Amino acid sequence: MVLLIAFAFVAGAATALSPCVLPVLPVALAAGVTGGRRRPLGVVTGLALSFTFATVTLVYLISALGLPDELLRTLSIIALIGFGITLLIPALGDRLEARLSRIGPRLGIGTSGGRTGDGFWSGMLVGGGLGFLYAPCAGPILAGVITVSASQSFTAGRLGVAFAYGIGSAVVLYTLMLGGRRVTSRLARRSAGFQMSMGAIMVIIALLMLGNYDTRFETSIASSLPSFLVDPTKGLETSHAAAAQLTALRGHKARQAAGLKEADAGLKLPVLGRAPALVGTQAWFNTPGERPLSLAGLRGHVVLVDFWTYSCINCIRTLPYLNAWNAKYAGKGLTIIGVHTPEFPFEHSASNVAQAIQQNGIHYPVVQDNNYKTWDAYNNEYWPAEYLIDAHGNIRLADFGEGEYAAKERAIRSLLIEAGATGLGGATHTHAQGVSEAEITPETYLGAEKAERFQNGPIPLGMHDFGSAAPAPAPPAPAPEHLRYSGLWRVTKPSATAVSGSRLQLSFYARRVFLVAGATAGPRPLRVLLDGHPISAAAAGADVHSASASISFQRLYRLVELPHVEHHLLTLEFAPGVSGYSFTFG
To answer: pTM of the predicted model, to two decimals?
Structure first.
């Protein structure tokens, strides 16, 4: 944990020098070079505290209340406009400083030399707003903490990592503000209008932020800079040491699949430990009266716990085998429990899960694990993952990912025989779509939280215009396995939603292309072009007809089905209101 906190401090300091902070920097400097001598300290203190609150504590409130991600940004910008106006009108500024300076004595905190005009508390106010605007600059280390915070218990470790990140940035910004005060000190003394000019700069920049021009500027400058300037700490934050520390922070233990060799060789399966209970779950499906099941209540049964989520193509490809095993062995003492642990926000919906269960023909019990409680109880890290439990409640096999279906079925049959089952007959014969053996394009996310390999550069949050959908001359195709947005999009952490003229180009190497998508007011069309032409019926996936897919229910859509793994350019023209979450490939 100490090492991860140190990494976070260094990453935060470097982030303060990256393009992401450029739109915030003029506001911080304008606040820091005016007013009392302690205002810079107030600014960085407020920034560190609000940044920590925004990235750790606030995620619980947003998740619980269902608030939009942009609300806090808007309120923070409005607060900065208000402060800028107090600089423009000195009388208002003096009155605000006098009122804020009374906070210290009331809280038992003294002021420097009894002065009320040192600027610390007004700086705290500005820094508080900046911290919320600065939060999207968080890199992989802090993103790893944020991702799990809403679904796991609050810990001092997560708070310490976030606070170290904020302090690292604050130290650099404080140094810049002190330097700015030295440079401008003579000018400030000679010109009564200096403070008013700083206020005008703050108001102008805050208004530009309201129009999302800061994110446009950030994307524009970052796309033309070397990667080491855009993301100076990428090597540190994605290092093996940082990854191992994040895994420990999440409460996961590195573990390999166990038991498959023994199952394949026909040997007795080892006991891997007691099976944890199914805890913290929500709705149950396919049980009598939709009542919960418990592993204790299933003693005497062989239980297969399958972690899945309905938009995951790897999970979908395992369902035919699970359905076949359920049909053959449920009457012989096997109980399959699908633990649905969501990856995207829409997968929390019970009605969406129920529809996916129906569409995939699932008849075994399924339970929602929206808060990752059962996932964490098993120290799981993968979709899909199977844990085979014997009649005495012991885990005898653990396997992650696709494949090895014959060995898994042999393990199931072995434990059923141990439990006294007879008349099992022959093994099942299931034919389902498998994963390609070739090296194909990796999974690609469209939201700001996990976006990578975009020709546009860093993908910002909020409304963003990526340029005309049909510029002349047309830009070259994206680099291999890269993507390019064009048109107007609304980008959130998990997704990107088309607004106007919205288009996406993807250069891929695969046989099949899948897109997790949905439309809240569907159905809406998604036009599909392959290598610049409407996709042919021979190359179209199951959800594409006449070169168009009808997007409604949030799920995985099958867009491309080729005879072989090949390089192609996929162009998607999104109707307004269609949201894309991620591409997967086969």
So the answer is: 0.50
